[in-house]
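User: Write out your own:

AI:
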Amino acid sequence: MGLAFSPLNVVITTSVPPADTGAAGGVLQTMQQAGGTLGLAILVTVFGTASRDAAAAGAAGHDVVMAAMTDAFMASAVIAALAFAVALSFRRVARAPE
């Protein structure tokens, strides 16, 4: 996370006027924490549902964990692909000459 958050903070806050940098940094950190929490909640829910379904189907102990992990990793790949698609949709806005 340290390799991603620090460069991302710099890239995001460079487009913010200096007077608003403090507020932008606070919002950025809040959104990163909220996004991580929401992502973890989704992945835990997927893991729990998949393990419950595999256990109900009569799978053995290690097969239950493997099925749940596979579903959770697939969900995380979908989340990462969606995040990448959203990131590609942002365009750098040219500032008007002063």
About this structure: The helical segments are 2-13, 21-56, 61-89. The chain has a mean pLDDT of 85. The radius of gyration is 19 Å.
